[in-house]
């Protein structure tokens, strides 16, 4: 979207172009942008059509995106710069979410580690002791019982 706007496309044309490009990678977003473009072509106001898209999508990311674009246009701010900042923020949020998921892995691995690996380690450590007891103590006990 930023590239399209910085290349000189208007917002409406950028919606069409991004909707076409994202067909394979993000089909749901592509459908929403295509529908938004159709509503704009039918004469619906941009803010109204974008709010309708945000309502249909129902995700906080789309709602934030729509609010940001509407506010940028109302205030006369650079939409491209606003989108660039928003994209950086979304990348940071995605990175933090991945980091949170990664921090949960050790906690989730504790139960399988204790349930599966710990018994094997205990067995490996105690098996030589058990073999020694059987080898040395049992013949002595058998000899004491048979001799008395």
Question: What this model shows, in words?
Answer:
The protein starts with a helix and ends with a helix. The longest helix is centred in the C-terminal third of the chain and has 69 residues, at 79-147. α2 runs antiparallel to α3 (27-41), α3 (27-41) packs antiparallel against α4 (46-57) and α4 (46-57) packs antiparallel against α5 (60-75). The relative contact order is 0.06. It is 86% helix and 0% strand. It has a domain at 2-102. It has six helices and no strands. It has 148 residues and is an all-alpha fold.
How many helices?
6
Q: Are there runs of 5+ residues with pLDDT below 50, and where?
A: none
Q: Provide mean pLDDT, rounded.
A: 90
Quantity of strands, as a count: 0
Radius of gyration: 33 Å
Largest sheet: none
Q: Could you say which structural class the secondary elements and strand pairing correspond to?
A: mainly alpha
Order of helices and strands: HHHHHH
Pick out its properties.
rod-shaped; single chain; mainly alpha; 0% strand; 148 residues; 6 helices
In short:
The chain is mostly helical. It has helices at 2-6, 11-21, 27-41, 46-57, 60-75, 79-147. It has a domain at 2-102.
Write the layout of secondary structure elements.
Elements: H1 2-6, H2 11-21, H3 27-41, H4 46-57, H5 60-75, H6 79-147
Helix pairs in contact: 2-3, 3-4, 4-5, 5-6
């Amino acid at each position: 979207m930023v590239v399209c706007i910085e290349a000189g496309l208007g917002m409406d044309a950028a919606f069409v172009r991004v909707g076409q490009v994202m067909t394979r990678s993000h089909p749901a977003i592509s459908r929403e942008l295509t529908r938004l473009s159709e509503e704009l072509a039918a004469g619906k106001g941009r803010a109204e059509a974008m709010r309708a898209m945000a309502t249909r999508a129902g995700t906080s990311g789309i709602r934030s995106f729509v609010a940001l674009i509407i506010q940028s246009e109302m205030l006369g701010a650079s939409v491209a710069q606003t989108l660039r900042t928003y994209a950086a923020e979304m990348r940071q949020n995605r990175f933090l979410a991945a980091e949170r998921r990664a921090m949960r892995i050790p906690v989730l691995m504790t139960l399988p580690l204790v349930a599966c690996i710990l018994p094997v380690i205990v067995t490996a450590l105690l098996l030589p002791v058990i073999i020694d007891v059987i080898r040395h103590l049992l013949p002595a006990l058998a000899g004491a019982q048979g001799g008395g």
